[in-house]
Write a structure and sequence with these properties.
heterodimer; A: alpha/beta; Peroxisomal Thiolase, Chain A, domain 1; 12-stranded mixed beta sheet; two-stranded parallel ribbon; 14 strands; 35% helix; globular; B: mainly alpha; 8 helices; 79% helix; 0% strand; extended
């Protein structure tokens, strides 16, 4: 059984193996700096007539690819933790409805990948569940439609705005000892909600940055680690602005960390016109299951703290003048 | 971990990106100007009376905005021009046609019909209301 250490960290007792990870992305992501690490590219509409169906197809295809790549029988998946950004997680629901495995729909905004990893690894650690799938998706067009403006409206993006990543990322966590060595989830730090009165929906990095800083600090102090214990501390989608803010907040609290951010890495803002970087549930999911998994397998890095960040808001809360709540969950992934 | 609200608000202000007002104004002036020049040329070559020409030109520019929106061109003009392509009447056409296209997937009634004015609606409501109000004042003062 997992042990609670310090204020909010759980150290896993059993080994939870990150057996396989896959990701399917859109064309813009494939053209970006990390393009070569992504398994497959599909158009944003995935041949469907609505954006919502397109996102569901991303989910369906990613799940199928994960099963094929990890060579696991479908019935061996004990449960699926998945979510997306659309109301009531319809992309995930429609994408996974045919597979007939137990399903938990999650909403943690863009932090959902880490949220699903935490819940799945704690369940596996507790026994009973042997194989769990974690999957998240987002789609630029369906997110624009739900949260912002119609695609064809001729407006400009604000400098701190972020670009929703099109794609889906999934991984298989397992308690079964694999034949070849693979990364292991060692500990998890679920984050608390943080509200610093940021109301600008075009600056979600600023809303999430304190949450990321709090979670990173909590993880390190709970486990009594120094930042250089990790080869990479990577946040989900703070973007360029949010990352700067997070680093400054940490620095003010005595933690000088040279961190990375999936949202900053996935696009080239100059060439691709993505302003402050990528965002969306798929942002951290595809970078984690594409780029970071590869780097761990190549042993280019051995210890990663993955901190996916989410902005908990809706168009309704924004119109009613509510500020944006930030959240960040941390997962420590290491080569053993 | 220690972070004061005031301190963080200051940090956010410090790190937030600033739009380049000069470049944006220049682009808006250029593109907005070009749109107006097109309208003026069209207006000048029409053979009708001045009043009729004006109406024809307005209809033509609305059509042009709608057409360019349908051809997925207007959003790219907008990305470059900002207010330059929002303020002219072509921008108004864009703000009605783009939601109509976007919500077509939700049906002709609750999709296109209900959502078509989701962007332009406020302009219509407050535009029409203020003309009625001003008209009423004008009527009362001049009778």
């Amino acid at each position: 059984m997992a042990q609670k250490v310090g204020n909010q960290t759980f150290v896993l007792d059993r080994k939870v193996y990150w057996k396989e990870g896959v990701c399917i992305v859109g064309p813009k992501e494939k053209e970006g700096p990390l393009g070569k690490y992504f398994d497959q590219k599909e158009n944003e509409d995935f041949g469907e007539d609505t954006w919502e169906k397109a996102e569901a197809r991303f989910v369906e295809a990613t799940y199928a690819k994960l099963l094929a790549k990890s060579q696991i029988n479908e019935n061996m998946v004990d449960c699926i933790f998945a979510g997306d950004l659309l109301n009531q997680c319809i992309a995930t629901g429609n994408g996974l409805k045919k597979n007939g495995r137990p399903y938990f729909g999650l909403y943690g905004a863009c932090s959902t990948m880490a949220e699903s990893l935490i819940l799945a690894s704690l369940l596996i650690d507790g026994g009973g569940v042997n194989n769990a799938v974690c999957l998240t998706s987002s789609n630029f067009a369906s997110a624009e439609k739900q949260f912002r403006f119609p695609m064809e409206l001729g407006n400009q993006r604000a400098p701190d705005a972020q670009w929703t990543v099109t794609g889906a990322g999934a991984c298989l966590l397992s308690s079964n000892n694999p034949e070849e060595s693979c990364p292991v989830i060692v500990s998890v730090t679920p984050g608390k909600m943080v509200d610093y009165e940021v109301k600008d929906v075009n600056n979600m990095g600023a809303a999430m940055a304190p949450a990321a800083a709090f979670t990173i600090q909590a993880h390190l102090s709970d486990l009594n680690l120094s930042p250089d214990y990790y080869d990479m501390i990577v946040t989900g989608d703070l973007g360029i602005t949010g990352k700067k803010l997070c680093m400054e907040v940490l620095k003010k609290n005595g933690l000088d960390i040279d961190m990375k951010d999936c949202g900053e890495m996935i696009f080239d803002p100059e060439k691709q016109g993505t302003c402050a970087g990528g965002s969306g549930c798929a942002c951290s999911a595809v970078v984690l299951n594409g780029y970071i998994l590869r780097k761990l397998r190549e042993a280019a890095i051995n210890k990663v703290l993955f901190v996916a960040t989410g902005a908990l808001m809706s168009p309704v809360s924004t119109k009613q003048g509510e500020s944006i709540i930030g959240i960040a969950h941390a997962v420590s992934i290491q080569n053993m | 971990m220690n972070l004061e609200q005031k301190e963080y608000t200051k940090l956010v202000e410090k790190h937030s990106g600033k739009s380049n007002v000069f470049v944006n104004c220049l682009r808006a002036f250029l593109v907005g100007g070009i749109i107006c020049v097109i309208a003026q040329i069209y207006n000048d070559i029409l053979p009708f009376s001045e009043e009729v020409n004006k109406v024809h030109t307005t209809v033509f520019m609305v059509f042009l905005g709608a057409l360019l929106t349908a051809l997925n061109v207007y959003d790219n003009i907008g990305k470059f021009a900002g207010a330059g392509s929002i303020v002219p009447i072509t921008g108004f056409a864009n703000s009605i046609v783009s939601p109509a296209m976007e919500f077509r997937s939700e049906g002709r009634i609750m999709g296109v019909g209900a959502q078509m004015f989701v962007v332009a609606g406020p302009v219509l409501v407050y535009g029409i209301s203020s003309t009625v109000l001003v008209g009423l004042i004008y009527f009362l003062l001049t009778r």
